[in-house]
UniProtKB/TrEMBL annotation:
UniProt keyword Transcription regulation, yes or no: no
Keywords assigned: Hydrolase
Active site residues according to the UniProt entry: S156
Species per Swiss-Prot/TrEMBL record: Pseudomonas duriflava
Lineage, highest ranks first: Bacteria, Pseudomonadati, Pseudomonadota, Gammaproteobacteria, Pseudomonadales
Protein name, as recorded: Acetyl esterase
Classification via InterPro entries: AB_hydrolase_3, AB_hydrolase_fold, GDXG_lipolytic_enzyme, Lipase_GDXG_put_SER_AS
Highest taxon listed in the record's lineage: Bacteria
Any single Pfam family the record assigns to this protein: Abhydrolase_3
Length: 314
């Protein structure tokens, strides 16, 4: 399938911002380019009833979004973990994504601002996410969330960390998420994973070239042996059974396409309820481009459908 026709304008703007080939940039420059795209491509900012900043017991910053019109009583909740290659992103980069999710899913959204590499390499990010999700679940009612209707979602590196949080939660036998949503997740950063066809075929496809991806991974995993740890490569976990129902979103022009598909297959083989939605004409990072791509609304509606379906089934 050809690349989505709407992407022509997106790629032109990204080129203007210097964000189409980040492989020759420093991490500081990557972060600067990443923050610039929001103003031009992310779309309008949906108004919320309130946005509240919180801190977990481990000192991890959290941000709660409540859309207008939810009514009284405990509400469904969705934890969101941002992408950015473990080196970029935060509350600002995914603010509009969180607002749109809160609005379309009719729920409270809790964003996690985990520590970034290279200042805080692996395993800082999974440690923050695992501890924060546990804290959110333990304090759900105090935050106005029904713990039985608490899901978790994330994109790219955040999709990887979402998968990790679900595995850790299952291993610790603490609390059940009603669902997981993995948006073009990174699931295999091992030496073998880097050889997957999509990583090779899409090595020069913007906005994430093979060089840029490797630079991010080198910052996050300075010890290559860590790449085979399930917290860095959740596809390599020894057991994928008894995990929350999963929606996995992939893009045809994404270097992470094949490992997302592989994770969907692995979960299904382990008996997990899986919905795989493939956007054949899309690039990596498209969920953040709601002001330029109609596919973003379709993806958001799919997430809302899955979230609602899983609440009813839990």
């Amino acid at each position: 399938m050809p690349m989505d026709s709407e992407l022509k304008n997106v790629l032109a703007i990204q080129a203007e911002l210097g964000a189409t080939d980040t492989g020759n940039k420093s991490i500081h420059e990557m972060r600067s380019c990443y923050s610039c795209k929001d103003e031009r491509l992310a779309g309008s900012s949906i108004q919320m009833e309130y946005i509240k900043d919180l801190t977990s017991s481990e000192g991890v910053p959290l941000r709660q979004y409540r859309p207008f019109g939810l009514g009284d009583g405990l509400q469904a909740g969705l934890i969101y973990i941002h992408g950015g290659g473990w080196v970029m992103g935060g509350f600002a980069s995914h603010d509009k994504v969180c607002r749109q999710l809160a609005d379309v899913c009719r729920c409270l959204v809790i964003a996690i601002d985990y520590r970034l590499a290279p200042e805080h390499p692996f395993p800082a990010a999974p440690q923050d996410v695992i501890s924060s999700t546990s804290w959110i679940a333990e304090n759900a009612k105090e935050m106005g969330i029904d713990p039985k209707r608490l899901g978790i979602a994330g994109d790219s590196a955040g999709g990887s960390l979402t998968a990790v949080a679900c595995l850790a939660n299952r291993n610790q036998l603490t609390f059940p998420f009603c669902c997981q949503v993995l948006i073009y997740p990174s699931t295999d950063n091992s030496p073998e994973g880097k050889k997957r066809s999509s990583r090779v075929e899409q090595a020069l496809t913007p906005p994430m070239s093979a060089n840029a991806m490797q630079q991010m991974i080198d910052c996050y995993l300075p010890d290559e042996r860590s790449s085979c740890d399930w917290r860095a490569s959740p596809l390599l976990a020894s057991d994928h059974s008894s995990l929350p129902p999963a929606l996995i979103i992939t893009g045809g022009y994404d270097p992470l396409r094949d490992e997302g598909i592989a994770y969907a297959h692995r979960l299904a083989l382990a008996g997990v309820d899986v919905l795989h939605r493939h956007f054949a004409g899309q690039i990596h990072g498209f969920i953040e481009l709601g002001g330029a791509l109609s596919a973003v609304n379709e993806a958001m509606q799919t997430i809302a459908f899955w979230f609602t379906h899983c609440q009813r089934s839990s």
